[in-house]
Amino acid sequence: MASSLGVLFRVATWGESHGGGVGVVVDGCPPRLPISLEGIQFELDRRRPGQSSLVTQRKESDHVEILSGVQDGLALGTPIAMLVRNEDARSRDYDEMREKFRPSHADFAYDEKYGIRAWSGGGRASARETIGRVAAGAIAKQVLRCFGVEVLAWVDQIQHLQASVNSDTVSLAQIEATPVRCPDPAMAEQMIAHIEAIRKAGNSVGGVVSCVARGVPAGWGEPVFDKLEADLGKAVLSLPACKGFEVGSGFAGTLLTGLEHNDAYRADEQGGVFTPTNRSGGIQGGISNGMPILLRAAFKPTATVMHEQDTVTTKHENTTLQGRGRHDACVLPRAVPMVEAMVALVLADHALRQAALRSVNVDGIQC
Ligand SMILES: Cc1cc2nc3c(=O)[nH]c(=O)nc-3n(C[C@H](O)[C@H](O)[C@H](O)COP(=O)(O)O)c2cc1C
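Above: inputs. Below: predicted complex with flavin mononucleotide.
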């Protein structure tokens, strides 16, 4: 299935931007897990359009309904279906896009693939598709709480503006303190001013979201194709507009020698093992090593800009297209809960896989 992710904790999203609604089915949620509607709505509100002047002004309440799989606030262990209805779909903003492809958007590629396309609003390529991911991610976060794991993401960079953030101590309150979701207050102010200026000029900018998963024990992930960083990379890169992904030192690690780059092992006083540095980003050999998982995701400047640009028609004739409608001048602030959701979905899946792998007590069994 092209719209699903996960092995034991499995999700499938559905819905188009300007259709009746969007949603998700979550299969494999441990029975009796407390499911908080408020917790899911909290994450959706962080993703919602219209939450500040920095993001698209489409007016959506994004009110989530749980249709199945939950009773009296507890998971039944059966599929959990969640629905958010579309309320403010203005298809007229997209009339011209029936015949013309938006530069750097998904229109041309979708047309080539399917021979048909939900031209109003971008269909599945719209960021509205991520509602299902964020709702499912809220449940995945709840699964991870049982393992003592917390996932936090923040805006680390907007174009050339780079924040300074301590991933060991950063908190949700610090991230949510400003509409740009950058927990470096001085840099957040500069970022906000920059995005406002870019928006007023009808243009767009991109940047980097950083993410930490704290409390992940050693042993999650698989050794070959489902390496933890491979699954995290696939999940994060599947977000719209995400164009780069790195774990730990990432591309910057190529500038160091092995002597500079290696994470030395040390024994702690409780008999555990840690590494004073964490250039591996908490993953070695595709498996978590007990250090915080650190990753970064690059998001491109929003495709739709309020200017006339060259493009072609569906009949492959040269033309131009004037950007119009309500768009994010910068997707980064809203991408933060999306990155957290994708990371939580992958980690919850691997948590259950590792629990299953080690659930049989083989001690004392004779062949
Ligand atoms: C939070 C978020 C908001 C977005 N908002 C817009 C938008 O307002 N206008 C737009 O053209 N693209 C927007 N995008 C990006 C498009 O969905 C995306 O660029 C498009 O699907 C093409 O896919 P690609 O960029 O991954 O190749 C947004 C992406 C995210 C993550």
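Residues 332-357 form the longest helix (26 residues).
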